[in-house]
Amino acid sequence: MLPTENRLRRRQDFAEAVRRGRRAGRPLLVVHLRRDTTHPHVPGERTPPARAGFVVSKAIGGAVERNLVKRRLRHLVRERLLRLPPGSLVVVRALPGAGSADHAQLALDLDAALSRLLDRDTHGEAEGRVAR
Prior knowledge:
Elements: H1 11-20, E1 22-25, E2 29-34, E3 51-55, H2 63-79, E4 89-94, H3 103-126
Helix pairs in contact: 2-3
């Protein structure tokens, strides 16, 4: 289970991550990452946690299959929360192939997408580029 403080629940937060965040696509999923630019880190203050949400459409399959994919993705993201920048919003959208994929395949795609987004953020912002 993903801790309550790390859950993305409001429609506005999903829209913010998808519309204004960066995107990395893989064969089984698409990951959107929106860094928190509104709360600069002040020493001594508590930083807001990274929050994640999931989009698993009916294209994946029936309710049982969709819930299985959501549980797998929640578990995988929970293990990677420390890699995410504080205050960031992450939306993981499962693509139709995710329903037949196993845990390891989902993990590989999630890791590749997150690595790509996090590497882009560190390199792109340092050089003034906007990665999309």
